[in-house]
Design goal:
The protein is an all-alpha fold. It has one domain. It is built from five helices and no strands. The termini are far apart.
């Protein structure tokens, strides 16, 4: 799956990295050069679940901290 390609549930590689606690891969994908506006559109799925929700569910502390430091919020479905 390419970075911004979605699966049948609307999830991207970023979602899967967050879901499975793949911190180092998440950092590589996140810093690949997409603008913040593109990330807002690409990484928020139709249900309103963002990668931070998935990282919290997987108890991946490094991933949670990374996503919070990069603008994701549990209470919002877009990057601030």
């Amino acid at each position: 799956m390419k970075e911004n390609q979605r699966d049948h549930q609307g999830q991207t590689s970023i979602h899967y990295c967050a879901m499975y606690g793949q911190y180092h891969l998440l950092c590589i994908l996140w810093t690949s050069g997409q603008s913040i506006e593109d990330k807002i559109m690409e990484y928020t799925i139709q249900t309103g679940v963002n990668p931070l929700h998935l990282a919290c569910s997987s108890f991946s502390v490094d991933t949670v901290i990374f996503l919070i430091n990069n603008g994701l919020s549990l209470t919002e479905t877009t990057i601030e």
